[in-house]
Amino acid sequence: MLSERIVTGALRILNRRYLGQYPADVTHLPDPLAGKPYTLYLHVPFCERLCPYCSFNRFLYGEERAREYFTALRTELTRTADLGYHFATLYIGGGTPTILLEELCETIDLARRLFPEIREVSAETSPNHITDATIAALKSRVDRFSVGVQSFDDTLLQQMARYDKYGCGQQVFEQVQRAVGHFHSLNVDMIFNFPSQSRKMLERDIEMVRATGANQTTFYPLMASPKNRRELARTIGAIDYAREAEYYRTVCDGLAPEFEAASAWTFSKEKGGMIDEYIVDYDEYVGLGSGALSFVGGRIYNNTFSLSDYRARIADGRTAIAQMGRAYGPKARMRYRFVTDLFGLRLDKERFRRDFGVSADAGLWMELAFLKMAGGIATNTAEEVTLTPKGRYLLLVMMRETLAASNDHRDHQRELLPAEEKLLLQDDGPLRCGPSGHEPTPVVVAQSSVEEFSVVS
Predict the structure, then answer these.
(1) Is the pTM of this model over 0.85?
(2) What is the rounded distance in angstroms from the CA atom of residue 454 to the CA atom of residue 278?
(3) What is the rounded distance in angstroms from the CA atom of residue 292 to the CA atom of residue 89?
(4) How far apart are CA 256 and CA 258, in angstroms?
(5) Considering only CA atoms, which of 206, 342, 324 is closest in space to residue 277?
(6) Which domains does the chain possess?
(7) Angle at which helices 169-179 and 199-212 pack, to 10 degrees?
(8) Are residues 183 and 143 in contact, defined by beta-carbon separation less than 8 angstroms?
(9) Are the beta carbons of 59 and 307 closer than 8 angstroms?
(10) Are 197 and 219 in contact (CB under 8 A)?
(11) Beta partners for 327?
């Protein structure tokens, strides 16, 4: 698709500028604007086993270091409250936030005490963490529970190095079913357009999602950093972007009419629920924890990726911020709003004029002209712009490229970690043979679960 290639090429250029960061000595985040709601993101960077395709800041779990980390995270949380921020929603990602259940519960309870205006809480988990104890502890604390499944296909699970961690597709399916009915939103995270994924595999994954009883699902396109695109092509095969649009249509058609689009890649049975992409509703957010991103005052702030540096900074009373990006100018902020609003399926023109002092048609004439020419605009009135199915796909492409660029930054930061922390990135656990009897081939793919979000261009 020509429009996809144009968007992909443009974003790979723009994201290098918009997502660029440099070391910075920052004493604290900018003061919040009076009356402005923000989103709060907490990062928990520990897993019992490390998925090779995950590019987020994560380390092998150790109970002592995880407990020390949660203590530091709660200290950072308390200091953020002292700055005067007000948060409407709380997202907790990782890693595996449910790695230490009692620590997670204590952290959620503290956040709700410090910020009583928090209306909704979203937390990630892995299939093996869906237990009676987890459900009992979180069903009154978490509104949206998001389970990282990726696929129910055993062959793909082997290639993703997930078969040994979480079991076969049927076992994962049964684990997801255990959580049905206990949370306002039960989300199933899936991946599409994996190189070895056939259309038949994808159609079966869609059927399995529907059969779980979950009331929300997110189908992410495969998002690989430049480094890992090359590794993926060497081991399994190149990502076929030409068929991505076809697979996206398969997802949309396969989930309809039971599931309606809540964003370009999230589909819900009920309207108005939380989705992964929290910047759709609140365009600025504060990220706490090692490796977390903040976007406040039109600038990116990135916390240190090092666990030891994070603990030391918090213990010394310093901020965890180690890097920041350049300030976004008016045009960059308009483009940011263009992507975030339309990723949520509607550009609010009245809000745009109020915030920028210019109409969207004047401020974004080139972007809207391209989207119209590509057949992506469904309606363009005085109040709003909405998207056609093709337009939703183009916004998915924009987000895919932005997250891939963020993954590239994370890969680079991982290379700079102290030697002792790099050891915590090595998972030497045994890989069991899959049902075919062949040893699985793990693939390194920098796929994002978008609870921790980065700034889009």
Answers:
(1) yes
(2) 11
(3) 16
(4) 5
(5) 342
(6) 24-290+418-425 (3.80.30.20)
(7) 30
(8) yes
(9) yes
(10) no
(11) none
Number of residues written out for the chain: 457
Give the phi and the psi of residue 31 in degrees, each rounded to 5: -65, 140
pLDDT tens, position by position, for the chain (457 residues)? 788 888 888 888 887 778 888 999 999 999 999 888 899 999 999 988 776 666 778 888 899 999 999 999 999 999 999 999 999 999 999 889 999 999 999 999 999 999 999 999 999 999 999 999 999 999 999 999 999 999 999 999 998 888 988 999 999 999 999 999 999 999 999 999 999 999 999 999 999 999 999 999 999 998 876 777 777 777 777 888 889 999 999 999 999 999 999 999 999 998 755 555 555 567 899 999 999 999 999 999 999 999 999 999 999 999 999 999 999 999 999 999 999 999 999 999 999 999 999 999 999 999 999 999 999 999 999 999 999 999 999 999 998 888 877 777 787 788 888 898 888 887 654 333 333 333 333 333 434 444 444 443 3
Q: Hey, which residues does 39 pair with through a beta bridge? A: 89, 285
CB 154 within 8 A of CB 162: no
Tokens of 317: 């009373």
Tell me which residue of 97, 105, 106 sits closest to 66, measured CA to CA.
97
d(CA 356, CA 353): 5
